[in-house]
Amino acid sequence: MEQGVSVAGGEGAGRPPVRVMVVDDHPMWREAVARDLTEAGYEVVAETGEGRQALRVAAAVRPEVVVLDLRLPDLPGVEVARGLGASSAPPRVLVLSASAEEADVLEAVKAGASGYLVKSAGREEFLDAVRRTAEGDAVFTPGLAGLVLGEYRRLAHRQPGAQEEDQEDGPRLTERETEVLRMVAKGLSYRQIAERLVLSHRTVQNHVQNTLSKLQLHNRVELVRYAIEKGLADLD
Asked: Are 70 and 19 in contact (CB under 8 A)?
């Protein structure tokens, strides 16, 4: 085992807990995060404080969620997120950073992060963010979601005719998939969408996964951008 890396053992009985990896160069903070996750029922499969180690260890332990700091000593967190996204079994990445700077948020999202939470968030807010990230939600500290959506809308407006493009020129979505996509673009969680459409949580997940597959996208953030480009998102 590499120095500075801690790897957990096997999964318990019953339904396997969500497998989480923690990447942060501050040992005490990293240990506190891992402890909170373990006490909440998650399986912390690895902890490390270096970016290159994180990529190597993630390939071996295959976490479902990676809680990632942006400030690492050897490799920027955005590069780690990009590397994780390019792996054969890409995990969902939740950035947990001290920075709420616009540039850091947008770079993290562009690198493939599913969510972004500042370290000042409370324990329950953090644990809820991990749960929602594992379920496929795009999770952001309050105030940052509007920033990300605003940036995607700005990029969409820079593409002439993007919103007028006929959807039939691309993959065909069913009426229900389009309805779910519109709600995803509004920032609703799977549970909220399920309640509004009177569907099960699993059915909503299946619709989102089918849409991701058809559009060859990787996460909900990319879905939001697609919806904006196609004029399917009401963000006003």
From this structure: no
Q: How far apart are CA 52 and CA 169, in angstroms?
A: 41
- Could you tell me which residues are beta bridge partners of residue 20? 44, 65
The DSSP code for 117 is E
CATH for 6-142? 3.40.50.2300
- 164-229 fold: Arc Repressor Mutant, subunit A (1.10.10)
CB atoms within 10 A of CB 144: 20
Tokens of 230: 């196609």
**Strand ranges for the chain from DSSP E:** 6-7, 19-23, 43-48, 65-68, 92-97, 115-118, 139-140
The answer to pTM > 0.70 is no
Q: What is the DSSP letter of 159?
A: S
pLDDT in tens, 190-216: 888 888 988 888 888 888 888 888 888
More confident call, 119 vs 153: 119
Per-residue pLDDT at 87 exceeds 80: yes
